[in-house]
């Protein structure tokens, strides 16, 4: 009964199947976490989405920014971007079933001391607080207010957590933290522009997981999203986006010991 986590797949279905074969994943007893961004840019987003839905009895995903982009495009609240590979999903006969399943997926999942989120958590958020904020977003995504939220979710503000937020500001801020964040400043304000390597980071910024004494430090946060960071494992975080979509690798880790790391080449 192994528990694995795999980084951002982004439509790299062939590589995902190779990786599951390499780790000898048992669909009858093992559990698989996917760090979000199931779709987009890769060649087989439809196949990945169908796989995750078909096996959701043992496969758990969280929503990533590309998954949310798919929902926004499908509902007419965003334009497809150059490089998007969402058309097969939007033309599929089972599109509505797949999209209804996708919008019901959470932003955060927890199993004992492991917590998975696509991008990260703010240092001053403990797990209970983060779960509460994540559930607020999920409740809206699964409600009749879906279109309202998809139409208004885009934007970089607010950049800081504070008690005077409107409902929309709170929802958007939570979404930006959990699906877009990479770096923050010393005041825990978001900088959503920087996407590069840690060595190139401006001096006033730091990775979200490098803040001192984070409130979640009695858990291990499993995340993806930051392909320039690559595989990153320390006492309290496991970063798994190793750039599959950019032709590098797709990575799995066995969460039982954090030592058994398996990768497959992801060149297309």
From TrEMBL:
Q: Which residues form the Calcineurin-like phosphoesterase domain?
A: 5-126
Query: What's one Pfam family the UniProt record gives for this protein?
Result: Metallophos
Q: Which reaction does it catalyse?
A: P(1),P(4)-bis(5'-adenosyl) tetraphosphate + H2O = 2 ADP + 2 H(+)
Q: Which UniProt keywords apply?
A: Hydrolase
Looking up InterPro entries in the UniProt record yields: ApaH (IPR004617), Calcineurin-like_PHP (IPR004843), Metallo-depent_PP-like (IPR029052)
Among the GO molecular function terms of this UniProt record, one is:
bis(5'-nucleosyl)-tetraphosphatase (symmetrical) activity
Top enzyme class of this protein?
Answer: hydrolase
Q: Which family does the record claim for this protein?
A: Belongs to the Ap4A hydrolase family.
User: What is the role of this chain?
Assistant: Hydrolyzes diadenosine 5',5'''-P1,P4-tetraphosphate to yield ADP.
Task: Write down what this protein is called.
Answer: bis(5'-nucleosyl)-tetraphosphatase (symmetrical)
| Organism encoding this protein | Vitreoscilla stercoraria
């Amino acid at each position: 009964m192994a528990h694995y986590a795999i980084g951002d797949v982004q439509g790299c279905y062939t590589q995902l199947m190779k990786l599951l074969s390499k780790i000898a994943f048992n669909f009858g007893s093992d559990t698989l976490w996917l760090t979000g961004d199931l779709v987009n840019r890769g060649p087989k987003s439809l196949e990945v989405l169908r796989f995750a839905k078909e096996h959701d009895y043992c496969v758990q995903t969280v929503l990533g920014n590309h998954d949310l982009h798919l929902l926004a495009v499908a509902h007419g609240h965003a334009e497809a971007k150059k490089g998007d590979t969402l058309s097969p999903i939007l033309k599929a006969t089972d599109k509505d079933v797949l999209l209804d399943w996708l919008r019901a997926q959470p932003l955060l999942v927890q199993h004992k001391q492991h917590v998975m989120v696509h991008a990260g958590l703010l240092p001053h958020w403990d797990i209970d607080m983060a779960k509460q904020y994540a559930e607020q977003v999920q409740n809206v995504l699964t409600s009749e207010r879906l279109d309202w939220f998809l139409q208004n979710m885009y934007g970089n503000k607010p950049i800081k957590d504070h008690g005077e937020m409107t409902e929309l500001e709170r929802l958007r801020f939570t979404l930006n933290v959990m699906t877009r964040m990479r770096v923050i400043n010393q005041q825990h304000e978001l900088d959503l522009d920087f996407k590069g390597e840690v060595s190139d980071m401006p001096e006033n910024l730091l990775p979200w997981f490098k803040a001192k004494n984070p409130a979640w430090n009695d858990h291990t946060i499993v995340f993806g999203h930051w392909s320039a960071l690559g595989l990153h494992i320390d006492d309290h975080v496991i970063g798994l986006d190793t750039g599959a979509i950019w032709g590098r690798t797709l990575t799995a880790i066995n969460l039982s010991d954090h030592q058994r790391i398996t990768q497959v080449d992801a060149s297309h």
